[in-house]
């Protein structure tokens, strides 16, 4: 990311990365190298960036904020390690996933270790309330994944979709901005505003990810176009399409639980890409962003506030 | 357990169980039923019993203590869920393991959910320092399991053995008694004494478990006698035996990494059972208990103190 909002915190993001990789000599050296390996892939670090900018806007204690940013990114990383194991994913952020290099047993344990490190950084903020948020966020993320595992595929239900993307993504964005406010000298109204801001931009972030799954190209993302739909997972573009084209036989087939790859699926993906559904979903993402920015409109008008605005627009305007 | 030390806290152990099972409506209902299922097996609840007695001896805040006891037992439960998945274990505490009923994916997530609930109860104690201990204990346990996964089998090294049983068992006993002191109105010297007490009885507990693996009967424990040795894991009785019988060919074979089941292994197990190694290992467990009780000898001489003494002797005198 070369955006100016990123430049503003780039040095400290490197420090957060160093913190995450920092030696913990009492543990097995391979666990140390796992962390180094997982962090080597780069990644956008969007969550720690949001965390640092939010805290900086509000005058947060820097040490607590750095620990919080490390905790947030490690919690995210730990859930990805277990996710990739469960999905049998081969690549993540362009490098082979841990489960392609380690046994399932070691991968489960590596994820657990990263949870433990995340909890350690959260505790290092010395804020009890933050620990509670942290624990609840992990439970929300995991509960969402269980729901996704146990729910039959091929449903185009908006409510289910919003719940799913909240659990998967918005819950941790929300925890990041909420906790950044918790380690800042601000009152409850500001904490609540930051809570809303994180929720709204997190929802937008996942909606745009779901759009990019349709509009991206196979070679660049390393998975097929519309990989979710091909697994029976109906995301917002497909929901808009299904609502506008109740008669589409290919869509009906998916909604009936038959989401086999084939001519019908390819035709459906092309139809969704060519339809207004993409633009409608993007408009909805922009509405989330607008609500998020409105929530913090009255907060200090400083460089970091403007950087958060820039970041919010980046969320909807980014390309893969 | 019908021992009087257990009777003293039995009602509150039931309350801790209710707390662990308590509804968390925002999460997937199957996660709720997983907790109910795992808790239905009974189990000795030795860790929450130690936690409650320790806190009661020192005048702990009862609400914090109950949350701590729930956190400790759930942390233990979560590690067992992932352990059983990794080991492919079929039974735990006499009931089928979660991994025999759920897919590996769901079992990984269920374990993560229980970690999250454990962290939530730890946070509910409102003690920041306790959260740090909690995170470090989880990292220690997981790191120990990684070491066990990655280390070649068939080694009879005392140092490795003590490190392994510390990570596996003593670390959480130590965290329990240390944190019970943290939520009590006591000074640092008492906290340090409780830390030692938990460490020593935890080490003894695992040594006795390792002895019972040799002396128990197959039918009652649901696994073969000397199941560890049959997997190349050399525990204290085998270490004593190897030291006393450097010439034993069957033992040498195991130490050379050949721990196949067969006539040689059965002969070795019988030899260890019949040797003085069992008694020597038990004497060592008693020394740990004695050191643990000495560490808390100056603490309040009340009913709970005497119950903890009784519990410590139960640890070495129990049968399967």
Q: Count of DSSP helices of chain A?
A: 15
Ends distance of chain A = 12 Å
- SSE string of chain A: HHHHEEHHHHHHHHHHH
Radius of gyration of chain A: 20 Å
Largest interface: A-B, 46 and 46 residues
Task: Give the tally of structural domains of chain A.
Answer: 1
CATH superfamily of chain A: Farnesyl Diphosphate Synthase
Please render the helix and strand layout as text.
The structure is a homodimer of 320-residue chains.
Chain A: H1 4-21, H2 29-40, H3 46-57, H4 62-87, E1 91-92, E2 95-96, H5 104-124, H6 128-150, H7 158-182, H8 188-215, H9 218-221, H10 227-230, H11 236-244, H12 249-255, H13 263-274, H14 277-295, H15 303-317
Antiparallel strand pairs in A: 1-2
Helix pairs in contact in A: 1-3, 1-4, 1-15, 3-4, 3-7, 3-15, 4-5, 4-7, 6-7, 7-8, 8-14, 11-14, 14-15
Characterize this entry briefly.
Helices cover 73% and strands 1% of the residues of chain A. Chain A has 320 residues and is an all-alpha fold. In chain A, a hairpin with a 2-residue loop joins β1 and β2.
Keywords:
homodimer, 320 residues, mainly alpha, two-stranded antiparallel sheet, 15 helices, globular
Protein architecture, described:
Two copies of one chain form a homodimer. Chain A is an all-alpha fold and 320 residues long. Chain A has a single domain (4-317), classed as Farnesyl Diphosphate Synthase. Chain A is 73% helix and 1% strand. Chain A has a two-stranded antiparallel sheet with strand order 1-2. Chains A and B meet through helix 4, helix 5 and helix 6 of A and helix 4, helix 5 and helix 6 of B.
């Amino acid at each position: 990311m070369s955006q100016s909002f990123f430049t503003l915190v780039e040095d400290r993001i490197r420090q957060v990365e160093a913190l995450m990789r920092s030696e913990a000599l009492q543990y097995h050296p391979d666990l140390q190298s796992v962390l180094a390996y997982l962090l080597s892939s780069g990644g956008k670090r969007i969550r720690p960036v949001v965390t640092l900018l939010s805290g900086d806007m509000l005058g947060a204690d820097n040490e607590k904020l750095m620990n919080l940013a490390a905790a947030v990114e490690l919690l995210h990383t730990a859930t990805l390690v277990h996710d990739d194991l469960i999905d049998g994913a081969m690549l993540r952020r362009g490098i082979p996933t841990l489960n392609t290099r380690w046994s399932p047993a070691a991968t489960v344990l590596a994820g657990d270790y990263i949870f433990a490190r995340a909890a350690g950084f959260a505790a290092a903020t010395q804020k009890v309330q933050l620990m509670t948020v942290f624990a609840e966020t992990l439970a929300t993320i995991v509960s969402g994944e269980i729901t996704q595992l146990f729910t039959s595929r091929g449903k185009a239900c908006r409510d289910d979709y919003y719940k799913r993307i909240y659990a998967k993504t918005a819950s941790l964005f929300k925890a990041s901005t909420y906790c950044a406010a918790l380690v800042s000298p601000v009152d409850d109204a500001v904490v609540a505003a930051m809570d809303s801001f994180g929720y709204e931009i997190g929802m937008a972030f996942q909606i745009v990810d779901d759009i990019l799954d349709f509009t991206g190209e196979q070679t660049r993302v390393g998975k097929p176009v519309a990989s979710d739909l091909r697994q029976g997972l109906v995301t917002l573009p497909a929901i808009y399409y299904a609502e506008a084209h109740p008669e589409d036989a290919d869509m009906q087939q998916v909604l009936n639980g038959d989401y086999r790859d084939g001519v019908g699926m390819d035709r459906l993906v092309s139809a969704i890409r060519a339809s207004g559904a993409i633009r409608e979903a993007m408009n909805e993402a922009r509405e989330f962003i607008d609500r998020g920015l409105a929530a913090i409109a009255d907060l200090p008008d400083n460089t970091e506030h403007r950087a958060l605005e820039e970041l919010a627009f980046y969320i909807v305007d980014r390309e893969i």
